[in-house]
């Protein structure tokens, strides 16, 4: 009988130890504080070193496609990879108040015992109180990053639109493009660096996630190229270029057909750095 009791105690002990280690090694947690930081990857060309994140050296060789696949976050929560071991991993974040989710790429460390999300995804899952209190309460889970997507395509239809940025003072709101709110803080130098386009191609960032990105467009008939800034969405499964660059790569048939057939590829913009801000209102 005594031996049985010892055996039972041993089994219980092993179970408890295993439970502790299982809890410590989990890659998820609930009710964690998520602050925001103005990493602003589009304005910084998705350049980790330019933004100055902790993972920049570790991830310096990753291509633009990889760096821009997901919005960015700093990670310093209790459960999951710690410090630089988290660099490049993906985390699914859920606002506990409204259930909104976003998948983020870990590119930075922090010291707040939770997450420091880029402002754009912070706003994406906002329940209306995020900026008031300076944070969200979230659940998170470290998840696999999907690496299947590509940021280029061939034989895509490119229509034209008369955005005419110079006549509109390169003012996004005046033209009424979909990205005007996303990019409202950008300088005139930044807004006028490249001609504009709407983007709704099948491959690459979708909808407002493409705002501010740069795209190299090649006319398949004559090989002429132009680099454009994405400032608008569309619904044509291709591009809607401003008339000026549309004419710049014209092969003589663009206006007759009403479109070009182009190849496109997302590329570095080469923008100058912008200032970052970080929210640090502590939870009550």
Automatic annotation (TrEMBL):
Boundaries of every Barwin domain copy: 27-147, 151-271
Keyword field: Disulfide bond, Signal
GO MF, any single term: RNA nuclease activity
Transmembrane intervals: none
A single BP term in Gene Ontology: defense response to bacterium
Gene3D superfamilies from the UniProt entry: RlpA-like domain (2.40.40.10)
One Pfam family named in its UniProt record: Barwin
Organism domain of life: Eukaryota
Protein name: Barwin domain-containing protein
Species of provenance: Cephalotus follicularis
